[in-house]
């Protein structure tokens, strides 16, 4: 991973968790070849670890194959919620939780 390739390391992305793709707004240029071109995805792997899906891949420079950042995305179901997390020097850090029920109990107003 290379902190010379990004504007900001691990920017806070709120609840925006990317399972694939790249956050190019944070991409400065390749610190190795100094070109600002597309970032490719390589070495993508998906594993299921005790009910938790983990997706990892590398962001690499299109021109010289320099590794810009390593991306990790996780998905799991905990109780009645789908839990998502993302951690990547380029794409940032984020987490989200969504109810699997039609109406999210956390969003309902109290009766009294």
Automatic annotation (TrEMBL):
Pfam families: Churchill. One of its GO terms (biological process) is positive regulation of DNA-templated transcription. The keyword Zinc applies. InterPro entries: Churchill_sf, Transcrpt_activator_Churchill. The keyword Transcription applies. GO terms for molecular function: zinc ion binding. Keywords: Activator, Developmental protein, Metal-binding, Transcription, Transcription regulation, Zinc. Belongs to the Churchill family. This is Protein Churchill. It comes from Scophthalmus maximus (Turbot). The lineage of its organism: Eukaryota, Metazoa, Chordata, Craniata, Vertebrata.
């Amino acid at each position: 991973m290379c902190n010379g390739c990004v504007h900001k390391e691990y920017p806070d992305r709120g609840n925006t968790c990317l399972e694939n793709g790249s956050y190019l707004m944070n991409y400065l240029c390749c610190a190795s070849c100094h070109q600002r071109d597309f970032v490719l995805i390589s070495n993508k792997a998906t594993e299921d670890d005790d009910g938790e899906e983990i997706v990892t891949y590398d962001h690499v420079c299109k021109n010289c194959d320099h590794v810009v950042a390593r991306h990790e995305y996780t998905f799991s179901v905990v109780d009645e919620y789908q839990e998502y997390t993302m951690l990547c020097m380029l794409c940032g850090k984020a987490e989200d939780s969504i109810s699997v029920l039609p109406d999210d109990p956390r969003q309902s107003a109290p009766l009294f």
